[in-house]
Amino acid sequence: MQHQSATPSPKRKAARSSGPRGEHDRESFVALVAGAAEGLVRREGFRALGMRRLAGAIGYAPNSIYNAVGDLDQVVLRVNACTLERLHAALEAATDPGRAPRDNALALADAYLVFVAADPRVWSLLFEHLAAPDQPFPDWYAAALARPVGLVDAALAPLIADAAERRRAVAALWAALHGLAALSTSGKLAVLTPDAPRDLARLLVGRFLG
C-alpha cells in the first residue's frame, strides 16, 4: 500500500503577543519604551504621548507596555529619569573643583539654561505631567532626581553652610531658573525684557548668593 503524505495544514498567522516577545529582556524593553516616548515628546510635545500611539511606535500591543513598564505615569517617569541623568551629566561637566564656588554656581546656571534650550519639550515633561498625588516616587526615580539636586547642593555647600538652608536655596534657585528657562524657550521673555537669559540667570544667582 502506497504511503500518502499528509497534506500540510495552512500556516496560521501568529497572534500578537501581549508582552515582550523574547526580543528584549525587561531592562532593554523599558529602555525601548522610554526612548520611543522621549522621541514622540521631542517631535510633537507632551500632548502626543499616549499608550496606543507609543505602542504603535515600537510595534507592540499596549498591554506589553502596561505589563513591563506600567501606566502612562510610569512611562513619563522613565523618560524624566533619563532627562535627569542627562542633566546631571551636563551640570557635572560644567563644574570645576579648582574654580571658586561662586563661579561654579554661575557655571551651573549657564549649563542649566543651555540644557533646557537644547531640548525644551523633553525638559518640560518634568513639570507638565502631573502624576497622581498619592503615588510616591519609585526608588529608581528618586535616585535619578537626587543626583542633579545633590550636585547643586554640593556646589553651594562652601557658600551656604547650614544644610537645611542650603536645601531651600537649591529649591528656590531651581524654581527661579525654571521660570526663566520656561519664559525663554516659549519666546515670552522678550515681553518682559530684552536682556539675554544667561545675563538674567547670572544676575539672579549672583544676587541670591550675595
Task: Provide structural commentary.
The chain has two domains: 53 residues, Orthogonal Bundle (Arc Repressor Mutant, subunit A), CATH 1.10.10; 133 residues, Tetracycline Repressor, domain 2. The N and C termini lie far apart (103 Å). Helix 1 packs across helix 2 and helix 1 packs across helix 4. It contains ten helices and no strands. It has 210 residues and is mainly α.
List the helices and strands and how they pair.
Layout: H1 26-44, H2 51-58, H3 62-68, H4 72-94, H5 101-118, H6 120-128, H7 139-156, H8 163-185, H9 189-192, H10 197-209
Key features?
Tetracycline Repressor, domain 2, mainly alpha, 210 residues, Arc Repressor Mutant, subunit A, 68% helix
Class based on secondary structure composition and strand pairing: mainly alpha
Question: How many structural domains can be distinguished in the coordinates?
Answer: 2
Question: What is the count of DSSP helices, taking H or I runs of 4+ residues?
Answer: 10
| Contiguous runs where pLDDT drops below 50 for at least 5 residues | 1-19
Radius of gyration: 24 Å
Write down the secondary-structure element order. HHHHHHHHHH
CATH homologous superfamily designation of the largest domain: Tetracycline Repressor, domain 2
Name of the level-1 CATH class of the largest domain:
Mainly Alpha
CATH architecture of the largest domain: Orthogonal Bundle
How far is it from the N-terminal to the C-terminal residue, by CA? 103 Å
Oligomeric state of the chains? single chain
Biggest beta sheet summary: none
